[in-house]
Every structure is written in C-alpha cells, then in structure tokens.
Design goal:
Layout (H helix, E strand, L loop, with lengths): L3 E8 L3 E3 L18 H6 L1 E7 H8 L11 E5 L12 E3 L3 H11 L3 E6 L1 H9 L5 E7 L7 E2 L8 E9 L5 E8 L1
Parallel strand pairs: 1-6, 1-7, 3-4, 3-6, 4-5
Antiparallel strand pairs: 2-8, 7-10, 9-10
C-alpha cells in the first residue's frame, strides 16, 4: 500500500502561507534543494486542494507536476479535468483510501491546510516532512489546524546552513 507523505515548508510560528495564500516569503530560501528533486522522483501521485492548485498556477512557470498523476479536491462538481489535473468533488477520505490501496508508489499531499487536516484526522497520512524556515510571519494559514491527538515518531532531522530545520516524522495510529 502506498504511503501518503506531507512535504511542506512552514514558518517558525507554523504558517504555511500568508492570509491570501501567497508563499512568496519562501523565495528567500531557494538557495537549497532540501532533497526536493530526490523526493519528487519517488512520487507518482500528487494531491492538493483547489486553492493550492490555483496558487501553483500563479508561479508563472510550466506546471511543475506534469509527469505526475495529479488530483485536485474541489467543491465544484461541474469541473472534472483540465490540462494539468483531474478534479475530485467526491468524499475526500473515500477517494484517498481507494487511491492509497491501488497505488504502488508514494503519494505527495502538497496541501492545503484543509485537505491535510481531513486526511490526518482520518488516519491516512503516514509521514510528515516539515521544513521549518527561520522566519516568523505576522499572520497566515496554519499548518497546525489538526483537531485531534496524534503521536509522532521522529525518523530524522537535518539542519541546513541557512537555518532551515527539516523534521521527518511517522504518524502513529
């Protein structure tokens, strides 16, 4: 069975984006790869919410996950597919449970916070790879909106010369 992995950056105070969804504050940390390319090579399926998808489209570059099977969760039942992704409007937990059983590679849960919360609360996320950036944001969208108790097992940590801390955890259910 596939593992669902959250690979995400956050500010020191737990913000994954500014209030408007912008992640421009991450640009100053682009001097490192943070194992991203190696991680991405192990992923065949990408999951994200509709807000995250539209944020990715604003980056101005080619869609970064063209070689992946990408599913975007949306409440809009009229939209089912575009040139980059398939839109899913059915029950998130049911869809992901079936996907996880049928996939033979790891699945990246990109975000956003609502989708992360739903899947952690439904005990579907296996690992967290959190990159804590040495910055405090005044306001924004919290990663830590999960409203349940979950025990984590530390797998590994790594520090980077620019002050970024990578923490890898397995979620114990």
């Amino acid at each position: 069975m596939a593992k669902i992995i959250i690979y995400i950056a956050q500010s020191l105070n737990g913000k994954i984006a500014e209030e408007n969804g912008s992640i421009d504050w991450l640009n100053q940390f682009e001097t490192e790869d943070y194992g991203y390319n190696q991680f991405l090579s192990t992923i065949k399926v990408v999951l994200m919410g509709n807000k995250t998808y539209h944020q990715v489209l604003t980056f101005g570059n080619e869609f970064p996950y063209k070689s992946k099977e990408v599913y975007v969760f949306s409440r809009n039942k009229a939209v089912t597919k575009d040139y980059n992704v398939s839109f899913i409007s059915e029950n998130i937990a049911c869809f992901v449970e079936n996907l996880k059983k049928s996939s033979n590679s790891n699945i990246w849960l990109v975000g956003g916070a609502e989708i992360i919360t739903i899947l952690v609360e439904n005990e579907m996320v296996d690992e967290l790879r959190i990159f804590t950036m040495p910055i405090i944001l005044r306001s924004g969208i919290n990663l830590n909106s999960i409203d349940c108790n979950k025990k984590l097992k530390l797998i590994d940590t790594k520090t980077y010369n620019n002050g970024v801390l990578e923490s890898n955890y397995e979620i114990i259910y």
